[in-house]
Amino acid sequence: MTTPFTLLYIDPGTGSMLFSILIGAAATLFFLGKAALIKLKLFFSGKKGGAAQADASYRPYVIYSEGGQYWNVFKPVADEFERRKVPLSYLTSSKDDPVFGQQYEYIKPEFIGEGNAAFARLNMLSAGFVLMTTPGLNVYQLKRSKNVAHYSHVLHMPNDATTYRLFGLDYFDSVLLTGDYQKEDIRTLEAQRGLPPKILETVGCTYLDVLSEKIASLPAEEGHTFTVLVSPSWGDVGVLKRYGERLLDPLVKTGWRIIIRPHPQSKKSEAEMLSRLEQRYKDSANVEWDYNRDNIHSMRRADIMISDFSGIIFDYTFLCDKPVMYVNADMDLRPYDAYDLHKTLWQFAVLEKMGIQLKEADFADIGAVIRSASDSPQLAAERKAARQTAWMHEGEAGRRIADFMTRTIEAQEQQKERR
């Protein structure tokens, strides 16, 4: 029998979505009201002038960080603005973002909420230049504010720029690259999609600059034992999700130290799998699990790394110059921009040259396979070539990004004067 109350049932997924929409709507209304109040105050005060003068909330330079995990990306930029004594607004969606622990005078950090609350705030932003790692501008909830003159995306990986979800970079005014090789694919997509060409500026890789300094400062390990680092991506193509015990069991039996460093997203999306594996190896003295924010400690101790298509492959080879073994994960590119290129990605092509492929048939005798897969001058040369291609301007990224930001604002001011 159907009762009137049956019609009121909302499944948990829909309920969560509706709740998220309501929260986002409430946040949007709040900031709309705040903006309207500012305009009314300006109107009745009789103040006149340009956009930067009339809009009390205007900020010339803004960084938006989704969370503390991106601190290594933005720190060199913030440090450079502080050194130049130029004010910079640092908006973050993390209450414990490391920026709050810095003794900055010119960098002003502010927590703006998470998810829809943060997007509502960003969508009402008034700024000259906004720098972010967040892709999908004007595609999902994050919209271009009519009061922001320039949006710039800074790549936080030295691999292909087209491995974002569809349209990830399409609506930015500029993209800051780690290497010149990334330009061609972006230009190809712009031509295919009829998009105006963005400014493509090669600046280097900020987080690799930071990690390079950190890893160089680490002391050598005393009593070192041969160490294998298993550091996969997440999802169905990640080696932990795809192979799990079939890979780890024979590795653990070698007696070598095995460090397992899951992708940060695995803790959220694959918690059950991780719990199962942790329980399985809880009594194995040679197994370590690494969930630290920085990966440099595990990379520094490892003699070889096993991964899939994860970007950490390039962190490890560029920073440590040691061999890497990869399992061909057959990545499905359909949800990504790269699918529209109809070509082999640079990161896959170069991995075949500088890495050693590990097949599932090799798992049973993996100890012997690793022993025989020693480093070689050819592999070392390929790693060096990849590093020179994908990590240009080493140690200069923070300065180059600050230069680009200030040049952009100066050009905006000159354009206003010509009007």
Describe the protein in words.
This protein is an alpha/beta fold. Helix content is 43%, strand content 13%. The chain has a seven-stranded parallel sheet with strand order 3-2-1-4-5-6-7, with helices on one face. Strand 12 (324-326), helix 13 and strand 13 (356-357) form a beta-alpha-beta unit. Helix 1 runs parallel beside helix 4 (115-123) and helix 3 crosses helix 6. The longest helix has 34 residues, at 12-45. The radius of gyration is 24 Å and the shape is globular. The chain starts with 11 loop residues before the first helix and ends with a helix. The model is unreliable at 1-21 and 45-53 (pLDDT under 50).
Low-confidence stretches: 1-21, 45-53
Order of helices and strands: HHEHEEHEEEHEHEHHEHHEHEHEHEHHH
How many helix segments?
16
> How many β-strand stretches?
13
> Radius of gyration from the CA trace?
24 Å
Q: Indicate the mean pLDDT.
A: 88
Beta-sheet strand percentage?
A: 5-15%
Largest sheet: 7 strands, parallel
Shape descriptor reads globular
The proportion of residues forming helix, as a percent range, comes to 40-55%
As an assembly, this protein is single chain
Biggest sheet strand line-up:
3-2-1-4-5-6-7
Q: CA-to-CA gap between the ends?
A: 72 Å
Structural class: alpha/beta
In short, what is this structure?
With 419 residues, this protein is an alpha/beta fold. It has 16 helices and 13 strands.
